[in-house]
Amino acid sequence: MCAIAGFVGVPGRTVEDRATLERMIGTLSHRGPDGRGFHLDAGIGLGHARLSIIDLATGDQPIFTPDGTVCTVFNGEIFNYVELREELRRLGHRFHTASDTEVIVHLYERHGDRFVEHLNGQFAIALWDSKRRRFVLARDRAGIRPLYHATADGRLWFASEIKALLAAAPSLGALDPRGLVETFTFWGPVDPDSVFRGVESLPPGHLLAIEADGRRTLTRYWDWTFPEQGSARPFDSIEDATAELRNLLVDAVRLQLRADVPVGAYLSGGLDSSGIVALIRGFTKTPVRTFSIAFEDAEFDESAHQQAMVRHLGTDHTTVLCAKRDIGEAFPTLIRHTEAPVLRTAPAPLMLLSRAVRAAGYKVVLTGEGADEVFAGYDLFKEAKVRRFWARQPESTWRPKLLGRLYGYLEHSPVENAAFARAFFGQGREHIDRAIFAHVPRWTTSQRALAFLSPELKAAVGPWDPLAFYEARLPQDILRWTPLARDQYVEAKSLMAAYLLSSQGDRVAMANSIEGRFPYLDHRLIEFANRLPPQWKIRGLTEKHILRRALHGLLPDDIVTRTKQPYRAPDAQSFFAGGEPLDFVADLLSAGRVRAAGYFDAAAVSRLFEKCRAGRATGFADNQAFVGILSTMLLDELLVRRRERQPAESLST
Amino acid sequence: MPSDLGHIRDKVRGYILQNLLFTDDASQLPDDVSLLERGIIDSTGVLEIVMYLEETFGIKVKDSDMLPENFDRVDSIARFVARTVDAK
Q: What's the pLDDT tens digit per position in A263-290?
């Protein structure tokens, strides 16, 4: 795990280029505190900050081919590097290090840009081919490791985080109205957009090549794809599929345990993370240390389930107890790392958790992230199933009652009142034939925050149809897939890649130099699960059915049969104590400051502020708007304004 | 004496504007617009309105009255309140 940054394009003076590269990497030292490396040549600069995990002795980057013509810096892990090295050695390649990095340049020599198809891992790669003077950026399939780029001053600049780009090209330091509106609607900007004007994210599963003449080619080398509706079953029986799934899970965990440092794991108390720990205990000899978050507030707390798992698995375990105030106080640091607004505070406790992991001497944790997307665990999928079932007979009164079986864990459940549940979940029925059908209720709730935008920002965005906008970025053949497959695709891109793996994943782990690993997102597992019939994932209204079968016998029955409880944390209430706002909240949401920033309507924000202060904001929409507005103001303060006043390096803390 | 429907309607509209739409601009909320369809209230929004009505007008909203037809428009909320107050 590490950070990368650099440029390609118009040659400059070496001394200045070196200083720029060091400035860029300097903003990313939290990602790589263990060492730095640079490569500079006419028109190319590569920088690397290292977090040593594999090959502690000789794994420094950049790494070259033996003839010195191909060079790479990369952030992440290539989990199958052992197998790849063996294969390449047999073919006559000579290796100088024991690192996973070195396989990248050798694979490139042999396969060109298709090198990336051989990698099983989580990565953001920059590669320079000096003979052909071509430059390549590549990002992992699921979007686990970030990679941004921007064009300024005749160069393409790239970096693991946006703050490094801003250190090189200050002209990029403005928030983009379109990126903000996308984030407030879909929870994260839609690929390739970011919330900074002129800054693009390289989408997951993509490779960008820049030739000597400046020509750019963006290639999608991998995507979540699903069989057409009505295709023949790929397995004779669910028993066969379950057996294959179990083998794949064991292998994914085995590969992701590869490290030359000890490995920890998160335990949420649910099926997914418990499954990972059970697989480690049951099928490897790796000792595992576990970590979890507990909340003071019972509505969010899962510690009883976590403790049950700890007893069952017998792991050495650390619990971090999180109070509302901890979340509020950690929030500015969080937003400096997310570099995007967030609509929930849920990433903050995870940042506190990674701090505890670091304090315990660990650099790597395995988590259960991804299982809900790959095996259809979210309520959204079940809700869409009921809504579709109901839409076939809109007059039915018993069909919508199935919704009563969802959301039991909420204090203010949207299905508490049957008549209103019908009214809410009946909405959007006219979109039933569209690929975004399942997501309409969520996006409608989030979008209520757009009412707080200032007239100027609304004008800058112009007329905007969020559903049509999202559809235009979906694969052409998506409507030939089953409804569940469509829902999974949109979820994997909108919530998972753009938010969960970023603001709630990479950023909160790397904030404390911790590398997260996600066995459920091994691309072989995704490809396997995507071929399964939908009823093997959601059976009736039981989610992740086949995963439960595959983990049967490894976990206590009550964990295997437990209904998913989504991970949540206290939202607006985290920013007030005894009816008074935390200091930074009062400052940033004051009418003068909101007006000066120009993103929001100051009068509307002060009403929302007052409602939250008085403890009257109980619904998702108000809480999301509040957290979204506050995080945008923090972004403005930390990455737009303060950067103008201070040198870039000071932002790295 | 029957309750003043116009007065109730103004108070309800004012509450929804300030607490759910966060504005004073009455043009944002015509009397006959559907609060549900426009996404102005969700399930917790309904609970907020019920709490406000009970505190402000001294009424009790029974479970059997928790129906979309009573709460979907400013106008229908005002009529519901007037009916309930008069029946006391």
A: 999 998 889 999 999 999 999 888 889 9
A265 and A202 in one domain? no
Q: Are residues A594 and A445 in the same domain?
A: no
Q: Which residues of chain B lie closer than 8 angstroms to A431, CB-CB?
A: none
Chain A residues with CB under 8 Å of B72 CB are: 423
pTM: 0.93
Residue A653 pLDDT > 70: no
> Measured at the alpha carbon of residue A49, what is the angle toward residues A44 and A52, in degrees to the nearest 5?
135
Write down the pLDDT at residue A420.
72
Same domain (yes/no): A646, A534: no
- Rounded Cα distance, A332 and A321, in Å: 20
Task: Specify the amino acid at residue A530.
Answer: N
- Per the listing, tokens 């899962």 go with A302
Domain co-membership, A543 together with A608: no
Q: A415 — contact with chain B (CB < 8 Å)?
A: yes
Taking the Cβ of residue A397 and every Cβ of chain B, the question of whether any pair is shorter than 8 Å is answered with no
What does the pLDDT look like over A139-187, one tens digit per residue? Answer: 999 999 999 999 999 999 999 999 999 999 999 999 999 999 999 999 9
Q: Do the domain assignments include residue A458?
A: no
Check if B24 contacts A (Cβ < 8 Å).
yes
Interface ipTM above 0.85: no
Range of the domain at A604: 572-652
Pick among 3.40.50.300, 3.10.180.10, 3.40.50.2300, 1.10.1200.10: CATH of B5-87: 1.10.1200.10
Test A419 with B67 for CB contact under 8 angstroms.
yes
Q: Where are the alpha helices (DSSP H) in A481-619?
A: 483-491, 507-510, 523-530, 534-537, 545-551, 557-561, 583-588, 591-597, 602-613
Q: Both A555 and A580 in a single domain?
A: no
A463 inside domain: no
Secondary structure of residue A606 in the 3-state scheme: helix
pLDDT recorded at residue B30: 85
For residue A423, the chain B residues in CB contact (below 8 A) are 36, 68, 72
Q: Of the candidates A172, A196, A220, which is a domain's last residue?
A: A220
B56 at A interface, C-beta within 8 A: no
Asked if residue A330 and residue A205 are part of one domain, the reply reads no
Across the interface, of A420, A605, A607, the residue whose CB is closest to B68 is A420
CB of B48 less than 8 A from some CB of A = yes
pLDDT digits (tens, 9 = 90+) for A374-433: 999 998 999 899 888 888 777 777 776 677 666 655 555 555 666 677 777 777 888 999
Same domain, residue pair A549 and A578:
no
Distance CA A551, CA A281 (A): 13
Q: Which residues of A are catalytic?
A: 2
Residues 613-652 of A with CB under 8 A from B: 616, 618-621
Q: What is the CATH number of the domain that holds A231?
A: 3.40.50.620
Q: What is the dihedral of CA A256, A258, A262, A263, to 10 degrees?
A: 0
Confidence (pLDDT) at A625: 96
Q: With pLDDT > 90 as the criterion, what percentage of chain A qualifies?
A: 77
Instruction: Give the DSSP H/E element, type plus range, for residue A250.
Output: helix A238-256
- B43 and A415 within 8 Å at the Cβ level: the answer is yes
Domain boundary among A185, A220, A255: A220
